[in-house]
Amino acid sequence: MSDVLQRGASGPEVVELQKNLRQLNFYSGALDGDFGPGTEAALVAYREWRGFDSGVDADENLVATLAADAQTYGSGAGEISENGEAPEVEVDDPNAAVRQAAISAAWGEIGQVRAKNSGGTDETGQETRDGWERLMEYFHVAAPGIWSDDVIKYLKPGLPSWCGIFTLWALKTGGAGVGDWGMGTGIPGIRQVRDPKPGDIGYIEQNQHYCLIVSVEGDTVYSIDGNTVGDDTGGGEVNDRTRSRGDYAGFFTVFN
């Protein structure tokens, strides 16, 4: 294999990487051999779970360790018990890896978009949004076909509030089994929870704002928010936020 696999790589080595990440429930995307943001987020979550240094790539040693872990701990893998069934791996939360992958994906977007600022003009002479390429991905993954690319790309009226779309993008990129954004219904299949976990969704009544929960410590809730600058839940950027539980109207989850 090549020395390092990282975003932009493609081919059978990436397929094998994706298969092994899927075996460990870090990845649920297509086995397409393209090292994109979903594969990267899954790899980041695996590295953290394994106790490796933070990073977004895979060298030969990591690939070998991942393959061994997939065989030992992966779904349907490992030693066979006397009754012919694979032993279950005990975990506190079977969705923990996906939750962490969603948070990692969202965290990597901080500072990448300033949707209310100019990103210069393109070949058509129209003014683009700063970071429109990332913004376009959020919409294409979470809300495909609802809004035109022109509305997303160019600095003009019509861009909807995209906090929920960003939150849904992070969850889908992390591998959550959740559907697409619905007009008038928002994130599909969510249910309300009393005590949110990392990877759940916070809801604030101002501007009907959604965010991705990073952690909860007592009365303090840490989150990553799309379309936010400071207390402006419509600010057009991706930022991390710290709030009191009392600031939230409710919490929701897409996980069972």
Describe the fold and architecture.
- It is a single chain.
- The chain folds into two domains: 4-90, PGBD-like superfamily/PGBD (Muramoyl-pentapeptide Carboxypeptidase, domain 1); 106-253, endopeptidase fold (from Nostoc punctiforme) (Alpha-Beta Complex), CATH 3.90.1720.
- 31% of the residues lie in helices and 19% in strands.
- It has helices spanning 12-23, 37-50, 60-73, 96-107, 132-142, 149-153, 163-174, and strands at 4-5, 58-59, 114-121, 127-130, 191-193, 201-204, 209-217, 220-225, 239-244, 250-253.
- The chain has a six-stranded antiparallel β-sheet. A two-stranded antiparallel sheet has the order 1-2.
Provide the CATH topology of the largest domain.
endopeptidase fold (from Nostoc punctiforme)
Number of domains: 2
Mean pLDDT: 87
Shape: globular
Order of strands across the widest beta sheet?
Answer: 5-10-6-7-8-9
Topology of this structure?
Layout: E1 4-5, H1 12-23, H2 37-50, E2 58-59, H3 60-73, H4 96-107, E3 114-121, E4 127-130, H5 132-142, H6 149-153, H7 163-174, E5 191-193, E6 201-204, E7 209-217, E8 220-225, E9 239-244, E10 250-253
Antiparallel strand pairs: 1-2, 3-4, 5-10, 6-7, 6-10, 7-8, 8-9
Helix pairs in contact: 1-3, 2-4, 4-7, 5-7
